[in-house]
Amino acid sequence: MNVSYTIAIPLIPLAVFLVLGIFNQKIKPAVSGYIGVAGLLTSAILSYYTAFQYYFIHGKEDGVFQTFVEKTNWMSFTETLHIDMGVLIDPISVMMLIVVSTVSLMVHIYSRGYMKGDDGYTKFFAYLSLFSFSMFGLVLATNLFQIYIFWELVGVSSFLLIGYYYTKPSAVAAAKKAFIVTRFADFGFLIGILIIGYYTGTYDFQTLTNPEGSIIANWASGSFMGLSILTWALILIFMGGAGKSAMFPLHIWLPDAMEGPTPVSALIHAATMVVAGVYLVARLFPMYYFVEDGFALNIVAYVGAFSSLFAAIIAVTQTDIKRVLAFSTMSQIGYMMLALGVSGYEGHEGVGYMASMFHLFTHAMFKALLFLGAGSVIHAVHSNYLQDMGGLHKYMKITSITFLIAALTISGFPFTSGFFSKDEILVAAFEHNKLIYGIGVFVAGLTAFYMFRLYFGIFWGKNTKYEHTPHESPLSMTFPLMVLAFLSIATGYTHFSEYVSPDKMGFETHLDVKLAIVATSVGLIGIALAAVFYFKPNNLSDRFAHAFGSFYKWTYDKFYFDEIYLFVTRNILFKGVAASAAWFDRNVVDASMNLIGNSTVLASQKIKKLQSGRFQDYAFAFVGGAVVLALVFIYLWTN
Amino acid sequence: MIAGISIYEILTVTSIIFFIGVYGFITRKNLISILISTELILNASVVNFVVINKYLYPTLLEGVFFSIFIIAVAAAETALAVAIIINLYRQISSVEVKETEIMKY
Amino acid sequence: MEKIIFYILAFIIVAFAIASVSSRKMLRSVIYLLFVLVGIAGIYFLIDYNFLAAIQLTVYAGGIIVLIIFSVLLVHHIEMELEIAKPIKQIVTALLCLIGLGVFLYTIYNHPFQPVENYTTTTVNEIGKGLLSYEKGGFVLPFEVISVLLLAAMVGAIVIAKGTKLFDKK
Fold first, then answer.
1. Residue ranges of chain B with pLDDT lower than 50?
2. H runs (alpha helix) in A343-433
3. C103 touching A (Cβ < 8 Å)
4. Cα gap C41→A361, rounded to integer Å
5. Tell me, what CATH number does B46's domain have?
6. pLDDT at position C166, please?
7. Which of A38, A47, A1, A48 is nearest to A16 (CA)?
8. Number of folded domains in chain B?
9. What is the pLDDT of residue C36?
10. Does B26 contact A611 at a Cβ distance shorter than 8 Å?
11. Interhelix angle A397-410/A475-490, nearest 10 degrees
12. Which end of chain C has fewer beta carbons closer than 10 Å to its terminal beta carbon, N or C?
């Protein structure tokens, strides 16, 4: 299968970015919107074509999905250690292509309505294209270093888009926070990459992840603090993934990132960029699984499970609807990590891996839908806060219905896509680790509860009086909602496990009825509770919050993690380390330099009288020197 | 040759003149005085050339020729020095050494 | 007889040299220099270099001294008292010169010169032939170089003495 045309998928958005960026002032906003959408549409069509070609026609040989690589040597260090640039086509990269292109296309279309009249309309589309380019590049990367390059590029685009409303101090702070936190995590990623490069001598994914290859076979070489070097490298790489995917404890940037425009939150901070960490772990899955019996993979599982629970609890109490969705995203990504963590490798053992990718796929659709729906609501109400909403159902029917579909999907309501993907995750967890399974079920209930709290709070509940009567959004915004609503249900019916599995052979899955019933009933209980609390206006929820007392307050303040980080950075890093370093710099480094400088000046002031400028003084010195030399040669140099 | 006078006496005299010139060169405060001191130094060396030629190599004339050249150079040097002194006097109305120190900056 | 004349000349030369560098009147200082130069011309006569003595008298006494006197008269009031260096500096310089003189004399007196007895008189004819000879030991090249140098010095002296007007076209 010739895959060289896939190189165009990232390059088209890059071209769009360059055009829009360079001719920023010259292009009319309407035109720039069309250019952006057209570029993404081309990429999307190419992605679908690639997917069709790969999954159905050329991809499978002897029952195994092949990996196709088209690359060019970019930088050579040694015979084996070189950095390539190229595209790698395998089941998960094609799956990610579909996700990224679909969501990105929908967001582009949606943004034409949402951003209408904004001053930086063209700039916004340029940034979106830059992001799409970087994300496609990340997905198609052939080696660790290439993925790292694009990894940083999506970080930059994320930074630019979070800080899009750069006149708002909170947006600027959020952009900085996101950048610094993810950058800090990427530091671990980079060290991991370098360790891998040093010990294995290659960055190439195919070589690294070959289960029969020498690298996985020889993982035990070298150990550090009781773990093999490769395990350390994988943990460090996971640190990078956790930063990008907002896993605990590097999650603090994601809620603040909601300062960006809502389409951006949908695209970057819900559907695509934040799952890059999951994708990275999936990409290196054979290494995680085989190296030291999956020690690093266990860490992934527990971090994922904890983040999932932690975020779900916080999400229950938040009142900013975008923040609820942000914590929900974090929780769902935790779910995916958890699924990866409990996965096996061969045949049906790999259900966790498959479920993780499946959930990534469906989550991208319904979470994008949720965000875009929230954006539509915010567009109508001009507020982010739940208190300012309520009873919107009669004003915005389409938004309400699509939002309901998304909420049902994320809650795992039967026969939606979330139902299938979540079920697979729980199956994998049940088979592997009961504790994680318990957490998963509990989180499923919580998810249903907070989602319907949100839904009822926005569209039902109290009848808020609005200054301007809210109205339904234009077609450019509702169209993507409808498409995504359709996809949220339809994607559940793909035979996902036949296409994506760790050993690339595909396997059959069947709905595990017992587990499905448990999960569904937990979800339904959550929905029912939410309905009791929030469907009709009442003070039940307040009384409940009161009953929880300080725990509620803690949760509302996100367990004070921001404050802890601030304390660590301000009081320990800035005041302790940085201040003492500054003191050292000023009083020792600078002072020694000043000492040298001052003593030179002082010495020169003392001796500059010698250089009087009077030639007679020089003549005196000359004669004196000559006489002294003569004396020396006559009396002292007599051999 | 001077009857009864060895080369040592003459060289002693020229050495004395030479160091008197050096002394004047260093201590005097006026450019013209310094020029005069330079003439003394030059003359001491000229006499040395001539005397050594006469006493040690009377058949040759190199010392004499060098003396002639030195005198010519001295004349040229004096002419130039006087020109410079006059020009300087026009510029700063002084030929004192202490007024010419600005070159050091 | 010659011995006595030499001692007298030596005394004149040294005495007037000292007077020349210590006099506080500019013009007197120049005249003392003239006496020194004439004394040196006398020494040339004594050792039978008459031509050289004549050059000494014409170029130095006739040319250079007149030039210096001109410049003195141009830039000084005749009766102006010259400034004198600080005594400490005078003493230190004198000391230095004495040490230097000691070194000189020590070296000279420790060197076994081997004078050749002779009382020949060098004629102008010999000097002229030597100067203009281009054979071995001839000095025609330095002679020409010196003539060019003199010309250059002359032009330079004129240019410098004329001041800025030559360059200033306004």
1. none
2. 351-381, 397-410, 417-432
3. yes
4. 117
5. 1.10.287.3510
6. 45
7. A38
8. 1
9. 93
10. no
11. 30
12. C
User: What is the least distance, in Å, from the CA of A595 to any CA of chain B?
Assistant: 26
Test C100 with A634 for CB contact under 8 angstroms.
Answer: no
What lies within 8 Å, CB to CB, of A336 at 6+ separation is A275, A278, A304, A356, A359, A360, A363, A425
Sequence-ordered alpha helix ranges (H) in chain C = 2-22, 26-46, 50-55, 65-75, 87-109, 124-132, 140-162
Q: How far is CA A229 from CA A191, A207, A225, A303, A391, in A?
A: 12, 18, 9, 21, 57
Q: Is residue B27 part of a domain?
A: yes
CA distances from A433 to A310, A518, B19 (A): 19, 17, 108
Q: Which sequence spans correspond to the domains of chain C?
A: 2-82+114-122
Burial (CB count <10 Å: 0-12, 13-18, 19+), residue C85: middle
Domain that holds residue B59: 7-104
C31 close to B (CB below 8 A): no
CB nearest A616 (choices: B25, B102, B105): B25
Instruction: Give which of C89, C98, C103 to mutate to test A binding, by max A Cβ within 10 Å.
Output: C103
Residue C90 in contact with partner chain A when CB distance is under 8 A: no
pLDDT at position A221, please? 62
* Closest C-alpha among B43, B11, B50 to residue B24: B43
Contact A612 B34 (CB under 8 A): no
Tokens read off for A317: 């109490």
The rounded distance, in Å, linking the Cα atoms of C41 and C34 is 10
The pair of structure tokens assigned to A253 is 């940037």
Is B2 part of a structural domain of the chain? no
B105 interface with A at CB cutoff 8 Å: yes
At CB < 8 Å, which residues of chain A contact B? Answer: 611-616, 619-620, 623
pLDDT in tens, A224-273: 777 778 888 888 888 888 888 888 778 888 888 888 888 888 888 887 88
Long-range contacts at A576-581 (CB < 8 A, ≥ 24 apart): none
Residue at token pair 């301000």: A570
d(CA C67, CA C85): 26
Residue C163: the pLDDT is 67
H and E: helices and strands count for chain B: 3, 0
Give per-10-residue mean pLDDT for chain C (170 aa): 89 92 87 92 89 90 88 76 80 90 89 84 85 84 90 88 59
For residue A62, report the phi and psi dihedrals to the nearest 5 degrees. 55, 35
Q: What is the DSSP string of A271-340?
A: ISGGGHHHHHHHHTHHHHHHGGGGHHHHHHHHHHHHHHHHHHHHHHH--BHHHHHHHHHHHHHHHHHHHH
Question: End-to-end CA distance of chain B, in Å?
Answer: 53
CB contact under 8 A, B79 and C60: no
Tokens (6 digits) for A468: 């301007």
| CA trace torsion C54, C58, C60, C62 (10° rounding) | 150
Provide the whole-model pTM: 0.66
Show which subunits contact C, needing at least 3 CB pairs below 8 angstroms.
A, B
What are the CA-CA distances from residue A465 to residues A377, A387, A388, A389, A394 (Å)? Answer: 15, 11, 9, 9, 13
Residue type, A284: L
Alpha-carbon distances of C139 from A517, C129, C131, C143, C159, rounded to whole Å: 126, 9, 5, 6, 30
pLDDT beneath 70: ranges in chain A: 217, 219-222, 467, 537, 540-541, 544-545, 549, 552, 555, 558-559, 639
DSSP A504-553: SS-------HHHHHHHHHHHHHHHHHHHHHHTS--SHHHHHHHHHTHHHH
Question: Does residue B20 form part of some domain?
Answer: yes
Which tokens sit at A23?
Answer: 């001719």
Fold category of C2-82+114-122 in CATH:
Four Helix Bundle (Hemerythrin (Met), subunit A) (1.20.120)
The answer to whether residue B84 neighbours chain A at the CB level (below 8 Å) is no
